[in-house]
Write a structure and sequence with these properties.
Largest sheet: 5 strands, mixed
Number of strands: 18
Number of helices: 11
Distance between the termini: 28 Å
Helix content: 25-40%
Shape: flat
Structural class: alpha+beta
Strand order of the largest sheet: 3-2-1-9-10
Order of helices and strands: EEEEEHEEEHEHEHEEEHEHEEHHEHEHH
Amino acid sequence: MFRSTDFYIDLGTANTLIYARRRGFLLNEPSVVALRQKSAGQPELFALGAPAKKMIGKAPERLSVLRPLREGVISDFDNTARMLHAFLKRIKENVHWFRPRMLISLPCEVTRFERRAVEEVGFELGARTVSLLDEPVAAAVGAGLPVLSNRGQMVVDIGGGTTEIAVISLGGIVTSRAVRVGGDDIDEAIIALMRSKYHFVIGEQTAERIKMAVASAFADEKDQRSIQVGGFDLLRGLPSKRTVDTRGIFPAIDSVVGGFAVTVRKALESCPPEIAADIAESGITLAGGGAMLRGISDRLSHELGVKVQIARDPLMSVAMGGAKALEDDRLFDALERPA
């Protein structure tokens, strides 16, 4: 009997990835939808993924560009389901689809109602069963850490909307902390700083460009970089260009990274002694897109007094961990968490 392909969905604030068992990753797109309001009735789907993201801050009146996931969880159920339906429609031509088993990753400290919402999306998509995987555990697997061993491992997963710190041993979470602060908050802090300090208004995509091109977690970064960006000069009342450098935007970066450090410190303080000894020896692993911020591992190591390393591919750590769990039945059974 031919079995339907099983799927793993990394439902992220920034990006959605879909992996099919024995087929690999079939989709990696921004979690963004653009809706067009018609003269009557419900708005229709106009664009999604990368094309929709390019419309942020540029959409005309009848076009709404939305992120249906906020802070790592579903904030708009209907449009999340609509987005996933459209994404899956793209890949259905290449895979056998009939009531598949579905694995979905999400933050470990979401509420029972938020977990139920994710489960409902899976069944809405036609899944036979829906299993949930805690993102820090997935990140640890994707980073190559021995999550099933009895040695404690600490993972800090800095996503777009949340930062999660989890201590993992024997395939489960011993202790965890989460703050609904992530890479998107750095973008917002840059926007706020540019407006308050320089009287210069920029959009979300421009802030992300600044973060990726020049930002650093250290105030005295030796490699000072700069980038020229466009925006609106409030003092002149005209569109203009401005050069932004590493030192100039550091206060925005510092405010968010400082919050990361405080949360990690609290997680370390709550560790059982034997686990703390393991972490003192093996260190802390950073994953998620936020781990790509220049200097963040050195900054956290300096403030915490513990070795901090970055996963080989931090942006893909959660997705790779979920893919490994889907391919390995023993790992799946050890890690999956009922909805």
